[in-house]
Design a protein that fits this description.
Elements (H helix, E strand, L loop, with lengths): L8 H9 L21 E8 L18 H14 L6 E4 L6 H13 L10 H13 L3 E4 L20 H9 L17 H8 L2 H11 L13 H22 L7 E7 H12 L4 E3 L8
Parallel strand pairs: 1-4, 1-5, 2-3, 2-4
Helix pairs in contact: 2-4, 7-9, 8-9
Length: 280
């Protein structure tokens, strides 16, 4: 009988690196990065500018002319990335309509939308300025019960969870910002800062691991659903046919941006560019 040798990931890496190579583990990350050419991605988080089913909504009048001008100024900044592909938070089954409206907008940027959202205000304008030909939706809808802690007899970490959700700011002191008094540009800078993106993963998912019955994992299971939704959205990104020459702009609600930041940072296929190189 022929024996099949199964190598562990560790064995593969050791065999690839070779024992003769000396690695400086205190070197910066760049020194250890792959030389493989990756697809550049500008992963941009925003709040929902039109109607949304999200529990938390930022006050923003999407029909106000000055607000629309402010969004278009930001679109002009981001257009310097020159994306060849734009991905947005709509479901793939909506792509035909999404693309038809986009083509119509490119021909007539003065066209009116009844209640424009971030796709129509920001993504369409950015694409028009960049000459982008392709736009797709990568959203995947899944519900999860973020209120689960209040619906069960929490025997894991009830006191900590209660303190946190009463006021999370003391646990994230650098996030103490009066967002209502920020310009739109500074609001979006704030929304794309690593500290805020970390907070969004914590508050939307990770804190639920502090909730559960004596022998149950109710909170963790709900948090897993949010991770699953974002992983499925990331899988939708991977369904888009791309080449090494493509440059991808992704526009989503910032909590999804936070998860994608983590996924892309480890990806052998994609390379995330610095949002703040363009948002200035």
């Amino acid at each position: 009988m022929k024996l099949i040798k199964i190598l562990t990931i560790g064995q593969i890496l050791l065999g690839t690196l070779g024992f003769s190579q000396e690695i400086k583990f205190n070197a910066d990350r760049k020194g250890l990065e792959s030389n493989v050419q990756k697809i550049e991605v500008l992963n941009f988080g925003t709040f929902h500018m039109g109607e949304t089913s999200d529990e938390n909504k930022t006050e923003f009048d999407e029909n106000d002319k000055e607000n629309q001008k402010a969004v278009h100024k930001i679109a002009a900044m981001l257009a310097k990335f020159k994306p060849t592909v734009i991905l947005v938070e709509t479901r793939p089954e909506y792509d035909e309509k999404l693309q038809a409206l986009y083509k119509e907008y490119v021909k007539n940027p003065n066209m009116k939308f009844k209640n424009p959202n971030e796709v129509e205000l920001l993504a369409y304008e950015l694409g028009r300025l960049s000459g982008t030909k392709r736009i797709y939706g990568i959203d995947h809808k899944m519900s999860y019960n973020y209120k689960i802690a209040g619906e069960i007899n929490n025997e894991i970490d009830k006191e900590m969870l209660y303190k946190y959700y009463q006021n999370p700011i003391p646990f994230h002191t650098n996030l103490k910002v009066d967002r209502d008094n920020l310009s739109l540009l500074n609001q979006l800078k704030f929304s794309n800062h690593d500290l805020y993106l970390d907070f969004l993963i914590t508050v939307n998912a990770d804190m639920l691991t502090h909730a559960g019955t004596k022998k149950g994992f109710e909170g963790a299971d709900e948090a897993a659903k949010y991770y699953q939704r974002n992983l499925r959205m990331y899988s939708n990104l991977n369904r888009v046919k791309l080449t090494k020459e493509d440059r991808v702009f992704i526009l989503m609600g910032a909590s999804h941006t936070a998860f994608f930041r983590d996924f892309i940072s480890r990806s052998p296929k994609y390379k995330m560019v610095n949002t703040f190189d363009y948002l200035k």
